[in-house]
Amino acid sequence: MDWGMKNRISKIIRPETGRAVMLAVDHGYFLGPTRDLEVLRKTISPLISYADSLMLTRGALRSSVDSQTTTPIVLRVSGGSSVIGESLANEGLITSMEDAIRLNAVAVAISIFVGTQYEKQNLLNMAELVNQGERVGVPVLAVTAVGKELGKRDQRFLSLSCRIAAELGARIVKTYYCDGFEKVASTCPVPCVIAGGPKLETELDAFEMTFNAIKKGAVGVDMGRNIWQNPKPVAMIKAIRAIVHENMKPQEALKLYESEKNLKKSAAKKK
């Protein structure tokens, strides 16, 4: 692996812990202005300094993130379908590698929908993106997407998807947590981060998922809705960071979340 590739990956996965807290705000590319992501800058600004990297589209980056930010950017480069279309799996490449470099991205992200009628085009698009990335030292993050079929998130399917992504050259894989996740992580020869998925019922659910994923082999999270759809998103991302980088247990993370939440309330009352 060349120096540039190693350096970019080290901006996503922190060398001192070997872990990563990625903040995903790329949902608008297929969901539009989803809840609590209506005004991108308003959502991103209070959270960006707590993220090891930020995952979003080029339009969101140019319009809603200050160019002075020191938070590394993972650029979403696949898309072309929407939540109201025939299939979310019918994606293509929507951003060139040249533009990713122009935007100083440390990685590019592409979804693959294994097992769908669009599997071949997804995988060939990913392979071509890897070819482009390897030429210029930009890692590809593959997202093992399931579209609207959330029931497909089981160990056998995710192991298959993650292994294929790694075999085709992805340097990092984003996937879902599941029962038997240790098999998913152990059979994927590149680092795995877990998606938060749809917002969970409680904060503790998100903390337990994060803790268990790390314990079973994930290097971190690429979380979105479970952070920015939380009523106290800053408290939430701080607690997630503590689990990922400090090995904090779920109940301790919940106490930290409550403490941060109450600090905000106290500060508001003093004003």
Could you characterize the architecture of this molecule?
- With 271 residues, the protein is an alpha/beta fold.
- It has one domain (3-231): TIM Barrel.
- It has twelve helices and ten strands.
- The chain has helices at 3-12, 28-31, 40-44, 58-64, 97-102, 119-136, 155-167, 181-186, 203-215, 225-228, 233-246, 250-270; strands at 20-24, 53-56, 73-76, 78-79, 92-93, 107-112, 140-144, 172-175, 192-195, 220-223.
- The protein has an eight-stranded parallel barrel with strand order 1-2-3-6-7-8-9-10, surrounded by six helices. A two-stranded antiparallel sheet has the order 4-5.
- α9 (203-215) runs parallel beside α11 (233-246), α9 (203-215) crosses α12 and α11 packs antiparallel against α12.
- The chain is globular, with a radius of gyration of 18 Å.
- The termini are far apart.
**Straight-line N-to-C gap:** 53 Å
Proportion of residues in helical segments: 40-55%
CATH homologous superfamily grouping:
Aldolase class I
| Shape designation | globular
Number of strand segments? 10
CATH topology: TIM Barrel
Taking Cα atoms only, what radius of gyration do you get, to the nearest Å?
18 Å
Please identify the structural class as seen in this structure. alpha/beta
Going by CATH, the architecture would be Alpha-Beta Barrel
Order of helices and strands: HEHHEHEEEHEHEHEHEHEHHH
Question: Strand-residue fraction?
Answer: 5-15%
